[in-house]
């Protein structure tokens, strides 16, 4: 990097861009892009998809400015960047890191889903969930209810099927799963979420002669708890004995004997 560029980077560090909401935007919605600046700016500009021409500008900005995109269309599902012109020190920043606006388009069919196993499985079973859409899917996402972002993603095979494995499941894998996919084509379009499958992971019965596992831990925890209780009882008994002894000594020193007040 040329020395001048390094100086500009130090004096006018790049801004950062964030999306609100960052998930679950559909065609027709409004989203807000926030450009966060480290200093006062003469202007802030918003850029779409690495295009050198900006699409929006705000003047005289301190700290942060918002750009609102109303009535999102398919072609707005691209990446965005912002940059600013600093006032003091003067200089134009680099563009921020790009953020991707993923847009759900309900005109695409949701993917199908199937679970390899029964809905109730024992701990440490390997479970697979398959999702497919032959026509449009370029990446398939596996979502779990309660998580805002997909938990896995995969490129489908030639038949349009992705196979997600949940390895050696534990109780934490219980829940409701669904898929969506990224649509083939220009933009960052997503299909709607498909039907759900639910998984319930049940604890294994402990085989006899096994090295214990969770049940032995439970015994250890109970014993640990008992040991702690015994220590507390001993400490309490000793303190009471000491207090009692001190009270007796005070009474002996002051025959008037109002020593019980402080207890
Ligand atoms: C589950 O998969 C892992 C590797 O993916 C394998 O090592 C393990 O043996 C499998 N467990 C069962 C019960 O099939
Ligand atoms: C999952 O789908 C079934 C029907 O396919 C539906 O009855 C159930 O309410 C759904 N569960 C959730 C959590 O959405």
Automatic annotation (TrEMBL):
Residues spanning the signal sequence: 1-18
Domain of life of the source: Eukaryota
PROSITE patterns found in the cross-reference section: IG_LIKE
BP term (GO), one: immune response-regulating signaling pathway
Every Ig-like domain range: 111-179
Coiled coil: none
Pfam families named among the record's database cross-references: Ig_2
Family annotation (InterPro entries): Ig-like_dom (IPR007110), Ig-like_dom_sf (IPR036179), Ig-like_fold (IPR013783), Ig-like_Receptors_ImmuneReg (IPR050412), Ig_sub (IPR003599)
Record keyword Cell cycle present: no
UniProt entry keywords in alphabetical sequence: Disulfide bond, Immunoglobulin domain, Membrane, Signal, Transmembrane, Transmembrane helix
SUPFAM superfamilies: Immunoglobulin
Ranges annotated as spanning the membrane: 218-243
Official protein name in the record: Ig-like domain-containing protein
Provenance organism: Bambusicola thoracicus (Chinese bamboo-partridge)
